[in-house]
Every structure is written in C-alpha cells, then in structure tokens.
Amino acid sequence: MSLFDPVEEDRFTFGLWTVGNPGRDPFGEPVRPRVGPNDIVRGLAACGAHGVNLHDNDLVPFGASARERDRIVKEFQAALAETGLKVPMATTNLFSHPVFKDGAFTANDPKVRAFALQKTMRAMDLGAELGAKIFVFWGGREGSEADACRDPRDAWGRMRDAIDFLCEYCKEQGYGMKFALEAKPNEPRGDIYLPTTGHMLHFISTLQNEAMVGVNPEVAHEVMAGLSFAHNVAEAMACDKLFHIDLNGQKIGRYDQDLRFGSEDQKGAFLLVRLLEGTLGGAPYTGPLHFDAHAYRSEDQDGVWEFAKGCMRTYKILKHKAQAFDADPEVRDIIQAQRDDAVDALLCGGYSPEKAQELKSLDIDAAKIGERGLRYERLDQLLVEHLLGVRG
Ligand code: GLT
Ligand code: MN
Ligand code: MN
User: Fold this and answer.
1) For ligand 3, a single-atom ion, which residues have Cβ within 5 Å?
2) Distance, CA 374 to ligand 3 centroid (Å)?
3) Which of 108, 116, 316, 342 gives 4 a disulfide partner, CB atoms 3.0 to 4.6 angstroms apart?
4) Whose CA is nearest to atom 4 of ligand 1?
5) Which superfamily, per CATH, for 8-324?
6) Where does the chain hold its CATH 3.20.20.150 domain(s)?
7) pTM
8) 195-225: per-residue pLDDT in tens?
C-alpha cells in the first residue's frame, strides 16, 4: 500500500455521471458504451473511492414506473452493501429534459416550476432512502439568452421561494439533509443566475432556513469566471458554508472542461488542497471530497478508471506537499516575519473607545514598513520547488 493510495478516511467520492460519462460532447457522439450504475459502484470501490453520488435520473430513468424505480433502487442498494460504498450526496436533474429549456425553479411557466419542485421532492426521497445527508442544487438551466423574457428579479425571487419551500419539505420529512448550492457563470445558458459562489453566499443569507443551506463550489465554474477558486472556497469556509465541493481541472477562459483534478493549474490545486487540509493552521474542511470530472474523450473504460485513480492520487500527493511546505522552516520564517502580537491583539475582538484611542496614538513608522522587502518572491519560489519535487 503506497502513501498515495486512497483510503476510506480520505472521503473521496465520484458521481455516477462522472465515471459514467460516455464521452459525448456538443460535436460528437459517445465514444464509450454506457456502464450501468451497479457496475460503476463496483468499479469505484475497486479504485478505492469511499462514495458515489447521483442525480435522480442517473439511477432511475425519467418516467420510470414506481415498480421499476423500486426494483432499480433495491439492486443499487445491494451493490452498495456488497462494496461498502456510501451515498453522501444526491441531487436532481433539472436540466436534461426539454421541459426545463426555460429553466426549472425560475421558468416563466408556473407548471414547469411546479414540476421542478415535484421532481426535486422525489429526488430528495430517493436521496434519503440511500442515506444522503447533502443535497446539491445546480441550476444549470436557470438563466437566459433572450433576457427580455423576464425581470431577472423575478428569477431571483422564484429561486428563493423554491429553496425556502424545499427546506421546509426536508425538515418536515425529517431527512436531516443540508443543501449545497452550486454556482456557474454560463453554459448551458448564455448567462446563469447566481453565477458565482459569492453570489450564492449572499443569496443564502436571504433564506428562511439559512442555517441548513451552504455552497458546493466547483473548480471549473469559478475558474471559468476568471476567479481564484481558493479565495472563493476560503470565503465559504470562513462563513461555515462549505458543505460540499466539486473538484476538477479547468483552463481559464474555456468551456466547462471538468478535467481530472490537478491536471491543470497545479499551483491553484496545491493552494486549494493546502486550504482544505488546513496545513497553514486554519480549521480543515471535513466534508466529502467529490470529483465532478470526467475522462478525456480519447479513453476507453480502462482509461476512465485511470482517470478516477489519478484524481485521488493527485489530491493525496498535493496534501503531502502542502504538509511539507507548511512545515518548511524557511516558509514559516517568511510568513511569520511580520508577526506583531501586541498590535494584533488591538485589532481583534471588536471596537471599544479605549482601543480607538490606543490605535490613534500608536506610533507606526510607515516609511520604514514601506521600505521593507517581504520576501514573497522567495516564498513563491519555495512553493514552486516543493511542487516540482526538488525540496521537501
Ligand atoms: C452537471 C454539472 C455539474 C453539477 C452536477 C450536479 S451535474 O454535470 O456540470 O457541475 O455539479 O447537478
Ligand atoms: Mn459540479
Ligand atoms: Mn463543471
């Protein structure tokens, strides 16, 4: 067993739709045969994953009869029991069917909104039956091209009504789930409402059941918007709102690539893992580490399992490197060089008139501080050397 092999405590999960992705894209047909959910569970278990997540229709086809549904769920539960895999998260497909072409919770037709609520309540019933404690909302179709079709404030309000309603449903059923909202700036819509994790965090603060709703940021989605993923995740963590995370790889300025974790922007991936693991000293993230990615279209099914192993292995390598980086005395020295506990104490713990007076009379040599070099060039070079494997 190598240091980088996945173990249960790593909390690695994949969606049925990720390793089950047959390689279809807007210009080309599938390149791999579809693998059934139960075989995906077995394949993931063989790779060392801890859990599998799903949309309602990844498991139960749209329009299946109640009998058919129950049979499929029973067989799936048997595969879970056989492998020990868990289902930490479930979600609803509110984007594939043509009924959602104008959105789901934000659609102009109230019947579409009613259908979306109906479908989501059933998906929550399914998730609860499989033991999921996190329910994700990705509003992929909640957006527009012909913006004249609605007042965007109505979209915002409808989204709020839907989440408020579903929180109550979840509480009433006693499912004990938390909701995690996933932002994306565009694709498949020209513009998607609530386009970034920051927007989601504010939206959550307007909800009736604010405490049970958090975010599910995805690497690719924030990078598409040109943002620092680690900064977005840090804000969510600081607000105790990081309920789930979608890990993958993405080049800036492209379509949603959903690449293998760590295959692009290794520095960004390193800083993310360092943050999640708390190696700098902050509280770590303890929820599931979900890979929302898929294999290159060049791959057959063996390549898909290579892809899955690669996601987990890279995460563990980066964790190892983050630990070594933050234990490096030179790194610590640079980061701690500006420490001043006495002044820090003045800045923490809020306002008081005495503190204000003390701060006003503090003798700070701005010229001297301004002249000082911060050695961040050296710090960044150390990071690069740790990453490239010549240090640590
Ligand atoms: C879809 C999307 C993802 C979301 C999934 C959850 S579905 O694959 O691209 O980012 O996380 O609905
Ligand atoms: Mn995602
Ligand atoms: Mn994506």
Assistant:
1) 220, 256, 258
2) 37
3) 316
4) 138
5) Divalent-metal-dependent TIM barrel enzymes (3.20.20.150)
6) 8-324
7) 0.97
8) 999 999 999 999 999 999 999 999 999 999 9
